[in-house]
Design goal:
Rossmann fold, two-stranded parallel sheet, 14% strand, 263 residues, 10 helices, binds NADP nicotinamide-adenine-dinucleotide phosphate
């Protein structure tokens, strides 16, 4: 059965785990081919074993501009087309702003935000040619903030601002931009989050374990791309309430969140 995604080529960053892995699987199930980028090649090869030849593993670190450009060109060279770029690779943090090492903030900005610029600039001509999709996996933390995540929130607010501007600049060229802002999703994000000392926490959190499944987020993302939506918020009730309060009653949200230590 053919689908909207059949025969299309996508580049997905952070495809070795969690939401990115689920996105790559869902795209392949819908008939697309995916250049799956991440640092952990073993995991990418396991993904190819599981999903077949539609997955093209590409080992690379998104903090390298060269690796980002190479990934885009590799994806394009598969079938002389690139129909979508999904920047999903991301790192979180747990640490108070005044205690966290400056390189924690820099690492988060490099992966979560600056990589998007390298990827977008390399992909731009191909996305214009295909009238394709530019998607960022942001977070509800791109719309409001909680304790211990100042650098993460800053990087996700940056992505939102960047995408909002790019949307205006590229709409006449036919590029579709989508920002996906999930709430808690059951992945390795908390384990991989950096502590104030810059080391990975290696500890899971109940909110994450009880979050949405990555597959659910992936399915909603594909649906949103097909219908060329602007922003989606796959999230639980509490995070959605946070979004509403942040818009209409930010002072109330501050009073609620000042005493809540979200893990
Ligand atoms: N889970 C949640 O609750 C949640 C909520 C809102 C938003 N998000 C966002 O969702 C996105 C995916 O995160 P996840 O929850 O799926 O977490 P995850 O399971 O920790 O996956 C993170 C992915 O990013 C990749 N990555 C990290 N640093 C990288 C780098 N320097 N270069 C290339 N790839 C890199 C990792 O691959 P390698 O280690 O193999 O490189 C991995 O594939 C992130 O942007 C995150 O902020 C997650």
């Amino acid at each position: 059965m053919t689908s909207y995604f059949s025969g299309k080529v996508f580049l997905v960053t952070g495809a070795s785990s969690g939401i990115g892995r689920a996105l790559a699987c869902e795209l392949v199930d819908c008939g697309a081919e995916v250049l799956a980028m991440a640092r952990n090649l073993e995991r990418l090869e396991a993904l190819r074993e599981e999903k077949g030849l539609g997955i093209h593993p590409f080992q690379g670190d998104v903090t390298s501009s060269k690796a980002c450009r190479e990934a885009v060109e590799k994806a394009f060279c598969l079938h002389q087309r690139l129909d979508g770029l999904i920047h999903n690779a991301g790192v979180s943090m747990r640490g108070l702003a005044h205690e966290s090492r400056p390189d924690v903030f820099r690492s988060l900005m490099d992966v979560n935000f600056y990589a998007m610029i390298d990827l977008f600039q390399a992909a731009y001509p191909h996305l214009v040619a295909s009238k394709g999709h530019l998607a960022a996996i942001s977070s509800v933390m791109g719309r409001y903030a909680t304790h211990q995540r100042s650098g993460y929130c800053a990087s996700k607010h940056a992505i939102q601002g960047f995408m909002d501007s790019v949307r205006l600049e590229t709409m006449d060229k036919g590029i579709h931009t989508l920002v996906v802002s999930p709430g808690f999703v059951n992945t390795e994000v908390a384990k991989n989050a950096l502590g104030a000392d810059g080391q990975a926490l290696n500890k899971n959190s109940d909110s994450i374990i009880n979050g949405l499944s990555p597959n659910e987020v992936a399915k909603k993302t594909l649906r949103a791309m097909q219908h060329r939506k602007r922003d989606i918020y796959p999230a639980g009730a509490k995070e959605k309430l946070g979004l509403i309060l942040s818009r209409f009653a930010p002072g109330v949200l501050d009073r609620l969140l000042r005493n809540i230590r979200v893990t």
